[in-house]
Amino acid sequence: MRGLFNKDVLFFGGKGGVGKTTCASATALAASRAGKRVLLVSTDPAHSTSDIFERKITADPTEISPSLHAMEIDATTESQRYVKGVKAHIAELFGHAILKEANRQIDLAATMPGAEEVALFDRMGGLIRGEDDRFDLIVFDTAPTGHTLRLIRMPELMEAWIKALSRSRRAMLGIEQDDKTDPIMITLNERLERLRLLRARLVSGRTTGFVLVLIPERLPIEETARAIEQLDEVGVKVGTLVLNRVLPAMTQDSFLAARRRQEDVYLKEIDQRFAAHRIIRVPQLESDVYGLAALDRISALLTATDLNGRALS
Ligand SMILES: Nc1ncnc2c1ncn2[C@@H]1O[C@H](COP(=O)(O)OP(=O)(O)O)[C@@H](O)[C@H]1O
Ligand SMILES: [Mg+2]
């Protein structure tokens, strides 16, 4: 797990309820304790980082422990922020003459399906590209996998869209080549460059790490296998799996022992199916994980050992 601290960006994914927020928060805390300047970003509308750190976390980075900042962002607020930004930009480019009509069009565009998500991805993209240089490491606690896949595909989709816009702009200006002085062409080309950089970062195993969290149960195993495959299709390699909430092997209790026998079948299956991945096992704790002390306990479990009990330094 410590190898992950040297990345620029980490994503934690997996099914709802498996422990994404817990593991992302514990990793962020551990990295900050190891001297990294860390930003933990929750993009899951369920927003449980506020609960886990037992304090209010907003859409702007707030320091919640030395060297650790956190923020919670969501599509609706980001969309409002985005629309405001675009309107200000248009006003700057064209003055107030066409502002009313332009604003009407922008408001209309903002109600289109998918528009809110684009705004959220735009904010995430800025963070991933390292726009905020206060941080060495950004840890994303994400919504379930589909969301992350759309983020990775977004640069590709937007590229096609921006190219089409550039073509129609050139046609409108009656030119063959890009006009290097046309403010709209400049804006479109800048966007394209930013998206290419974003995609390069997302698929680079050197800068970005993807961690999938699962628990030893049927559905999370299948979801993990699917996620690994789908991420692979878009060029992203999942290195580490966190196998969370593993029951103790030794127990006097017959109910727990039976449950653990069932789990053993899944543990074996997980080892076999995901042999190419590093698997970190985290035991089921006796209570829910809230507050810094409990998170430190999870961090210690995440960073101390891998499947074979080897130290992961
Ligand atoms: N190893 C663990 N032992 C005990 N409780 C855990 C463990 N990991 C997570 N939990 C608890 O399980 C619940 C779901 O975890 P959470 O991290 O919010 O999942 P997700 O973000 O994937 O929906 C929380 O109440 C959390 O405290
Ligand atoms: Mg969560």
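qc> Residues 20-21, 44, 46, 48, 141 surround magnesium ion (ligand 2) (CB under 6 Å).
qc> done
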